[in-house]
Amino acid sequence: MDLLNLDGLWITDPYSIHFLIGIHLDTMERFSALLLRPQQKPLLLVNLLFGIEATEDFEVLNFHDADDVSAIMKSLVLGKNLGVDKYMRAQELLPLLDSYNITIASDLVDKLRAIKSKEEIEKMKVASLINDQVMEKVPSLLKVGVSEKEVADQIEDLFKDLGADGLSFDTIVAFGENCADPHAIPSDRKLKDNEAIIIDMGCIKDGYCSDMTRSFIMGHNELMEELYHLVNKANKEAFNSIRTGMTFSQLDKVARDVIGAQYKNEFNHRLGHGIGQSTHEPYDVSASNHALIEPGMCFSIEPGIYLKGVGGIRIENLVYIDEDGNGVLLNHVDQDNPWLNNKG
Q1: pLDDT tens-digit profile of 201-259?
Q2: Rounded Cα–Cα distance for residues 129 and 275 (Å)
């Protein structure tokens, strides 16, 4: 990896460390970091309690609980130009400020992680297939009188039954007015007739994540149906516009133009996010991200409209960019028929 003019780069994000050297780290509150230096093997700085040994690909330097970690870090980078990632804790970063010209250099690794290999894409296809299979069963769980928590628990049981290794994130199940919260937490709120439903869920399989959102309408609700058609159109037009050479900000604008002025303030989040080993990773699909879309990238498209105290609609699919520069959907669950009539 080209470190540009840096004398060293400290990586503390566990997902990036795994990407670079294949080691899963969970050192809890104890510090761990991977040091990248020009013409040298990566060096993993980690507490000796975790028993990690060097390999042909990287070196290991252990420290004790009583050691001065910042002093050790300073001894390892002799030049003045130091890069750190955006996740480094202030506890370790602040003592370095008087010794180095420090740059936040996460993008050097982010660019590599954003371009998925064929093997990574295949793993994401498997995780997304499980997600599809579970979402296909979700309508049968949605009956008037069932609670958000009950549905979330049943979804998580289905993931286990289908062989998922875990959840990508806590499952979101929202009914009625709770749909106005993009990150709603499942509650004891029970489903009523003639209201919207949002299900946002994902699983992990072989180290890679899936993520998908579908909205439903129990019975008939004219306003929610209007929002559904608009959000669905924004989702599809954004997907159909994808091409290599366009920026993520341009893609975000496609969806916002469809949503239009009437609901621009109610579409209150970015269009999407990168995904891979973690649910949210480079690059985000937002008005502020002017990075170019390239083959190998994988990200979500998830427009939404949220009306406080009333309800909301969100539709999310994952997309990867193939070697020819075309967008390819990872999700294949129907998004054109949201109506339910399961009164139980």
Answers
A1: 999 999 999 999 999 999 999 999 999 999 999 999 999 999 988 999 999 999 999 99
A2: 15
**Are the C-beta atoms of residues 331 and 235 closer than 8 Å to each other?**
no
pTM of whole model > 0.85?
A: yes
Contacts of 160 (CB under 8 A, 6+ apart): none
Annotate 196-240 with DSSP letters as a single string.
EEEEEE-EEETTEE--EEEEEEES--HHHHHHHHHHHHHHHHHHH
CATH of range 8-113; options 3.40.350.10, 3.30.365.10, 3.40.50.970, 3.40.640.10: 3.40.350.10
Distance, in Å, from the CA atom of 321 to the CA atom of 301, rounded to the nearest integer, reads 13
Question: C-alpha angle with apex 329: 205 to 249, nearest 5 degrees?
Answer: 105
The 10s digit of each residue's pLDDT in 150-159 is: 999 999 999 9
